[in-house]
């Protein structure tokens, strides 16, 4: 059974891991202030291609943080059964593994195809969003092969081009 010290370590480690991954994946443009320009008494904000990927990452990180908080509540709940706590622990472990795998796949796409991407893994499904103006079927097939090479089992992979 998990004692309190191990539980706190797991909780803090998970939080630090998520925050560090979030910080490392943020582009420098997101860390600086957004450039705005005024025209006709209204503000316009220029959105670059990488900003779309950044928005996707932020949404995914928020969702992951919420899921982790839910699982951590179960782990800290004294009334939860051992089976519920084990399931929550396994789910936390899977979330952390998926996050690492997502980064690995993004780096593989960047290295092999020189494209910025966003990858989201959920069970046996992999969603890939590519920051590219061209919507090429051959490129999509190559990206699917690159992604599948990172997994031992067959995955259902979708590729979406975002311009």
Identify low-pLDDT runs.
33-41
Q: Can you tell me the CATH class?
A: Mainly Alpha
Strand content: 15-25%
What is the number of E strands?
Answer: 5
Shape: elongated
Total of DSSP H or I helical runs spanning 4+ residues: 5
Structural class: alpha+beta
* Biggest sheet strand line-up: 3-4-5
Level-2 CATH architecture = Orthogonal Bundle
Our Rg estimate from Cα atoms comes to 19 Å
CATH homologous group name: Stage III sporulation protein AH-like
Percent helix, as a range, is 55-70%
Mean pLDDT comes to 82
Q: What is the number of independent domains? A: 1
CATH topology: Helix Hairpins
How many strands, which pairing sense, and closed or not: the largest β-sheet? 3 strands, mixed
Write a structural description.
There is one protein chain. The chain has a three-stranded mixed β-sheet with strand order 3-4-5, sandwiched between helices. The termini are far apart. Helix 5 links the parallel strand 4 and strand 5. The chain has one domain: Orthogonal Bundle (Helix Hairpins), CATH 1.10.287.4300. The chain is of the alpha+beta class and 163 residues long. Helix 3 runs antiparallel to helix 4. It has five helices and five strands. The radius of gyration is 19 Å and the shape is elongated. About 6% of the residues have low confidence. 16% of the residues are buried.
């Amino acid at each position: 059974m998990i004692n309190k010290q191990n539980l706190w370590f797991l909780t803090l480690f998970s939080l630090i891991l998520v925050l560090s991954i979030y910080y490392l994946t943020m582009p420098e443009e997101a860390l600086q202030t957004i450039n705005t320009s005024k025209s006709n008494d209204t503000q316009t904000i220029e959105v670059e291609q990488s900003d779309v990927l950044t928005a996707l990452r932020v949404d995914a990180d928020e969702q992951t943080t919420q899921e982790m908080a839910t699982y951590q509540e179960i782990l800290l709940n004294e009334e939860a059964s051992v089976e519920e706590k084990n399931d929550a622990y396994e789910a936390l472990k899977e979330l952390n593994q998926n996050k690492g795998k997502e980064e690995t796949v993004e780096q593989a796409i960047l290295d092999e195809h020189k494209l910025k991407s966003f990858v989201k893994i959920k069970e046996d499904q992999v969603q890939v969003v590519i920051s590219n103006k061209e919507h090429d079927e051959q490129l999509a097939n190559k990206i699917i092969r690159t992604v599948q090479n990172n997994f031992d089992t067959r995955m259902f992979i979708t590729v979406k081009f975002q311009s």
